[in-house]
Write a structure and sequence with these properties.
Helix content of chain B: 25-40%
Structural class of chain A: alpha+beta
Largest sheet of chain B: 11 strands, mixed
Number of helices of chain A: 3
Distance between the termini of chain B: 48 Å
Strand order of the largest sheet of chain B: 10-9-8-7-6-5-4-12-13-14-15
Mean pLDDT of chain A: 85
Radius of gyration of chain A: 14 Å
Oligomer: heterodimer
Structural class of chain B: alpha/beta
Mean pLDDT of chain B: 90
Radius of gyration of chain B: 23 Å
Strand content of chain A: 15-25%
Number of helices of chain B: 16
Low-confidence stretches of chain B: 1-7, 463-489
Number of strands of chain A: 5
Low-confidence stretches of chain A: 1-16
Strand content of chain B: 15-25%
Shape of chain B: globular
Distance between the termini of chain A: 32 Å
């Protein structure tokens, strides 16, 4: 068990090198998320929906993988594959964009 | 387990003095009436066949209704909700903290324990044919363990999708967290119970941050944000002797400023920290009067007010999750019926632990412990003759009606009886009588101390044989027959 730290300031628990692309919106639905962007709308089911939420809220990729492992109940290898594939798809579809380290 | 007196008959009615009249209440029937002294005597003593015509509407209502007294649950455990305590740590330094305050453990729950609990619960609900998966976060302050909350929420939604369940997530929180966390709550939570003790002079005295820094502005900011989100915001006010006289004012401000779904008033629970801070529990008579006033203010805004012990709209056996098969999972994997600290139960000779869950997913529930927790709410000798038996249900099993506690009414009983009676009178359209009562110290004391309230209505028992859920929803609306009754004599 970790020790408790005060809630982190700013937009999320840590900076990320991925973020939702401009013009992309999403809505939480009963069992997943609905992504809307320039390429149209897409429903994301679990566990990928958790990956999107964690990235969108600014978690570092390392924490996204760690938390997704628990959420999806996968080992590290399986989790990395899941996260990598989701990111690849979302970047290709224009929902996510990579940003430079400072920004 | 103590041997305690039998509960009153399920068909019990109650009579209590209100100035020169009597308030009749049959909570299991959902009936209240205001009667005069002569009618009260008839209700107590005479067979229904002998009741005069003016009481026939009441007799008909009592005969038509089918009371079902809540009973302890039986059979397999199917939890009413899953409680998660991500940490006992907190980012505030509330001077009345009942969860250890400065000595509270700052550890966080292992996410594997959280996942195991969620998985067990989802599967159990599915097996039982349930549709709703409810999770409540307790603390400490749950959001100082944000990753545990994230894992629980997403794992629950994942499992809910797998089993075709709906999720409802809520939390008790101090509201000192950032905008990003607020958005997360708005996206995924159905409700929030936000502790907010009033104006700065009240809130910052009772709920300062570490090192005594004020938190009023931060909590107000969170309240404003949450008020804009699609969730039920409940603002919980801990009322002390310092704030009680301004309860109506506080309520008006909160309703105007935040438009919450609910404003909830609870009195300070005495403790070492609160005493050391010079806080006092409000006088029960003063609290009752201002609480009723605050109800009126909230209602004028179209907002629901709640003093939880006076929720007479629903019949219940237990005041709290204890006895409802709610499973509260602590950060160390203990599964309990109660979210209070184990040392608090033990001080009362109680054991609220039901079992444990391990990180590898093994849930162990002790059948005897479950049975013990189910029976506990039914064993309330102090409540046997009280008209609040099925609404207040004895209050906290640890702090109010613990085994061996006195049979005499406490300040908690007094304020609960007064508020409940006033709310019933208001439902009967007797606003002026409520004012008259609240202004009459002798009448208030007579009502508060009246015992027993019980009237035997054994003649109209139609109780079913199936054990009822602990929190039995009321069926049709309350029958209001006051007009006919008040004509008599």
């Amino acid at each position: 068990m970790d020790s408790v730290a005060p809630p982190s300031p700013g937009p999320g628990p840590a900076t990320s090198r991925l973020r939702p692309a401009p013009g992309v919106g999403w809505a939480v639905e009963m069992h997943g998320l609905l992504l809307r962007g320039p390429g149209g709308a897409r429903t994301i089911h679990y566990p990928a929906a958790a990956v999107w939420d964690l990235i969108a809220r600014g978690y570092s990729l390392e924490r996204v993988v760690a938390l997704t492992g628990h959420i999806a109940d996968l080992d590290e290898e399986g989790t990395r594959a899941l996260v990598k594939e989701a990111i690849r798809e979302w970047v290709a579809a224009g929902y996510l964009e990579e940003v430079s380290g400072d920004g | 387990m103590q041997s305690l007196r039998a509960a009153p008959p399920a068909s019990a009615g109650y009579l209590l003095p209100v100035l020169h009249r009597w308030l009749f209440h049959a909570p299991l029937h959902g009936i209240a009436a205001l009667v005069n002294t002569e009618s009260a005597a008839i209700l107590r003593a005479d067979a229904p066949e002998a009741w005069p015509a003016v009481l026939h509407p009441l007799r008909a209502a009592l005969s038509a209704a089918v009371p079902a007294a809540p009973r302890p649950l039986e059979g397999d455990v199917c939890p009413s909700f899953l409680g998660i305590i991500p940490t006992r740590g907190c980012n505030l330094g509330c001077v009345y903290c009942n969860f250890g305050g400065p000595t509270a453990s700052r550890e966080r729950m292992d996410p594997r324990v959280a996942v195991a609990a969620v998985d067990w619960m989802a599967k159990r609900l599915h097996e039982a044919g349930r549709e709703l998966f409810q999770i409540h976060f307790f603390g400490g302050e749950p959001f100082v363990a944000p990753e545990v909350v994230d894992v629980v929420v997403h794992r629950a939604r994942y499992m809910a999708a797998r089993y075709g369940l709906r999720t409802y997530v809520d939390a008790s929180t101090n509201g000192v967290f950032d905008e990003a966390r607020c958005r997360f709550v708005g996206d995924y939570f159905g409700g929030v119970v936000l502790s907010f003790d009033g104006f700065p002079e009240h809130h910052d005295r009772t709920r300062p941050g570490k090192n005594g820094r004020p938190t009023f502005e931060a909590v107000a900011r969170t309240a404003r944000r949450l008020a804009q989100m699609p969730l039920d915001l409940c603002i919980r006010v801990c009322v002390t002797q310092d704030s009680v006289a301004r309860l109506e004012e506080i309520t008006d401000w909160m309703c105007t400023e935040f438009s919450p779904a609910v404003v909830n008033f609870e009195t300070l629970t005495p403790g070492e920290l609160a005493t050391a801070a010079g806080l006092r529990v409000p006088d029960p008579y003063e609290f009752a009067a201002h609480c009723v006033g605050a109800y009126r203010v909230a209602e004028s805004h179209g907002i629901r007010a709640v003093y939880s012990a006076a929720e007479h709209e629903r019949v219940r056996l237990s005041f709290c999750p204890v006895g409802t098969d709610a499973l509260i999972v602590s950060l160390d994997g203990r599964v309990s019926a109660c979210y209070l600290l184990p040392e608090d139960w033990r001080m009362r000779g109680l054991d609220m632990d039901l079992g444990s869950i391990s990180p590898d997913g093994g849930m162990r529930l002790d059948r005897d412990a479950v049975a013990r927790a189910r029976r506990l709410p039914a064993e309330k000798p102090r409540c046997d003759g009280c008209f609040c038996r099925w609404s207040c249900a004895g209050g906290c099993h640890v702090n109010q009606t613990y085994p061996g506690s006195s049979d005499a009414y406490t300040d908690f009983c007094i304020q609960t009886r007064l508020v409940t009676a006033c709310l019933l009178l208001r439902e009967l359209g007797q606003e002026e009588l409520v004012d008259e009562l609240l202004a009459h110290g002798g009448a208030l004391r007579a009502l508060a101390g009246h015992a027993p309230d019980t009237v035997d209505l054994g003649w109209c028992t139609h109780e079913g044989s199936t054990p009822a859920a602990v929190r039995q929803p009321r069926g049709a609306g309350r029958s209001l027959v006051a007009d006919g009754m008040t004509l008599l004599g």
